[in-house]
Design brief:
Blueprint: E1 2-5, H1 7-24, H2 26-45, E2 51-53, E3 58-62, E4 67-73, E5 77-85
Helix pairs in contact: 1-2
């Protein structure tokens, strides 16, 4: 299955990565990248792995206890919508 990154997913991914490098350590940022790649590998073989969020009308899966990935499944591809830091205010449909 083909994976498509939205502009927002790309932006939030690099924002989180840069935040982790600057405020935590490069090792933590590398672990985040490794965890994202692992989850994307799993989603390629099973797109229904994440739970469906009926309020947001998309699927979500935890990357780590602090980061959630929101995505949509289509017939021929999987679209990454956004990475979200769970320590922020609760997400709503407008934020996606």
């Amino acid at each position: 299955m083909r994976i498509i990154w939205s502009k927002k997913a790309n932006y939030t991914f690099y924002t989180i990565q840069n935040y982790l490098e600057y405020f935590w350590s490069p090792l933590i940022a590398q672990k985040f990248i490794k965890d994202v790649l692992h989850i994307l590998n799993l989603l390629e073989s099973n797109t229904m792995l994440g739970k469906y969020n009926s309020n947001l009308k998309c699927r979500e899966i935890l990357i780590s206890k602090h980061i959630t990935l929101y995505y949509q499944t289509e017939k021929d591809h999987l679209e990454l919508i956004s990475f979200y830091n769970n320590r922020q205010k609760p997400i709503n449909i407008i934020d996606l």
